[in-house]
Amino acid sequence: MAKTETTKRTVLRSQAREFVVRLQDYFEREYQNGDPLLPLSQVTKRVSATLGISRKTVSRISKEKHGTDLTEDNKLKSPLKKKVTRSIVTHIHNFDNDAIRNHIYGYYSRTELPTLDKLSNTLRESGLFHGSRIFLWRVLKKVGFSYKKCDNRRILMERRNIALARCNFLRSAKSIAVWNNVIFLDETWLNANHTVGKIWTDDTPQSSTKVPSGKSERLIICHAGSMKGFVQNCLLAFKSKKTVEYHEEMNFVKFKEWFCTLLTNLNKPSTVIMDNAPYHSVQISKPPTSSSKKADIVKWLNDNNIVANMSMLKVKLLHLVAINKPASRYVLDEIAKEAGPNVMRLPPYDCQYNAIELIWAKIKEACDSVPAANWESVVLRTKNLIFADWDRDIHIDAVIDNQIIINTGDSTDDDEGDDDDADHEISISASDDEQVLS
Questions:
Q1: pLDDT-based confidence at 152, cuts 50/70/90?
Q2: Which string of DSSP letters, residue by residue, matches 308-353?
Q3: Which of 86, 246, 295, 352 is in Cβ range 3.0-4.6 Å of 189 for a Cys bridge?
Q4: Considering the entire predicted model, what is its pTM?
Q5: Which residues contact 154 (CB under 8 A, 6 or more apart)?
Q6: If you write DSSP's letter for every residue of 72-106 in order, what string do you get?
Q7: Apex CA 182: angle with CA 176 and CA 183, to 5°?
Q8: pLDDT tens digits for 356-386?
Q9: What is the C-alpha separation between 153 and 12, in angstroms, rounded?
């Protein structure tokens, strides 16, 4: 009796097991039929019918295995899975960020404690954010908030450096005497052939436009204005070579040249308000950081008359930098100081204090089409917002100081992974603000 040949045990996945069942069922039907269900010569059709897959799939797999001339013996591989990307709702327009921040401030004004669960519900009800809870946490962290423990609950608190920057800006802005000479500047982009998306037409040539609709070349524009309108002879516009964030195509050299042109066209004295874009904020003798090379740290210290050498440990050198670091000095601020105007920088995440942001929506046709009256209204609106937010911050600080006790003894790290600076995140003290107001 011949010895039965044994085959190696093979582990089959769920899809392969399904194909085994289909094969057995098909062959069982052929046995009951007494003849093949399809002619034996139609091999591809038979495989397709047996396995329940398309003939194109059968042919494609056969070519992968044997090649087009049927002489190869390739190893079959599983097709690469398409990476499924989830829509992460973290990129939000600046004005939506402002609305979310004001929504959070409202909790403190009502003496309520803002928690992530509360915000997730109330922001959704208000139509300000429709993402998931974890993505909301990421958005809040990006705009300068983090969590601290309060009575065994985690409440949202604004980082100290963010609150302090806004406090300094609002205090300086409140001291401006003549708002007619406040200059707001910014950059934005628009499509070269920007047109409305829909028009009324009867589909005849007479009522159709030859101007291409939709997106085409993008223009990056930089401009400045005041209550009197756009500053004359100061429009900078150039073609964008990329489709990404326009800030990547503006550099310090280009902006500095435009800024100098702006200064020559201003009525003195003036106050220039701008944000902290990298090309706005190039520093004079910028202090080194922990990522700087040791030699660069030693050079900076020596240049600032601080004794240091390469034999010293880097941690000691960084300590010397920290205790001797001067206030930041910006190249553009010094240029403006020589020309006359004073420069004020917007606090992080607070673009609502830049009046030109409200003008950009009106320039989709031409800058010259924006009348001075529009500029006057948005500057007055910005001024009123600054005064109102100063009073709001004073009120919120009093609420926090009198009714919210922060447990600094507990860990401040959020369960979902807060940043390392949480233990420094406190509010501006009411006493400081009272001294300013007195």
A1: low
A2: --TTS-HHHHHHHHHHHPPPP-BHHHHHHHHHS-EEEEPPTT-GGG
A3: 246
A4: 0.61
A5: 115, 116, 147, 148, 414, 415
A6: --PPP-PPPPPPPPP--TT---HHHHHHHHHHHHH
A7: 150
A8: 988 887 775 567 677 888 899 999 999 999 9
A9: 51
